[in-house]
Amino acid sequence: MTLLARLLRAKPVIWILLLLPGLWPAWPLFVAQDPSALTDPLKFILLQLGLTASVLLAVVLTFTPLRVLWPKSAVVQALNRHRRLVGVSAFGYGLIHFIVHLLYEGGWEFLPITLKSDVEKPFLLTGLISLTILLVLTITSLNAAVRWLGGKAWKNLHRLTYIAAALIAYHQSAARKIFPMQVLWIFVPLVLLEIARIWKQRAKSRGA
Predict the structure, then answer these.
(1) What is the pTM of this model?
(2) pLDDT of 40-66, one tens digit each?
(3) Residue 16 resides in a domain
(4) In a domain, 22, yes or no
(5) How distant, in Å, are the alpha carbons of 43, 120, 144 from that of 178?
(6) 39/36 Cα distance (integer angstroms)
């Protein structure tokens, strides 16, 4: 087993990797004092949290195709040990992103007005729907939920992750009024891996 695989098997290492993106905004805001971040600090934090949630969701969705394509890889096996933790972290960042959005729009006292405005704007509505999907998947990620739902129903339910990813891709791009390259960088590798996974599985089934 390689050193990288050993490191990725360790849960403390994964926790550090998951927490660092959430702490990173402190650097441009308080240390480097980047003028672009200081112009609107809350908006900067809002965007960084949304970006982190998007990246983590895309990352956890790559675990399955990576396992299919490289089933004997120690690194891939190590990553798949933390599927639940990474998925729940994506929801956690998404939830904090939503809370910061509410604060940015005026705080809790304006919650009804903010939610009413959100559902009237497609890119905000898709964000709310994707967060709701991730909430359901987080709750049902527990072992007790797997036993209660049954393996097949649980697996079908968790395929909603792909719908959440598509909604988040639209949310990320529409929020910036132009199609940002970062959406391509986040989701195109996932799409390519999924295409390769499907091709390999179909080729294997034809050869069987």
Answers:
(1) 0.92
(2) 999 999 999 999 999 999 999 999 999
(3) no
(4) no
(5) 17, 20, 43
(6) 6
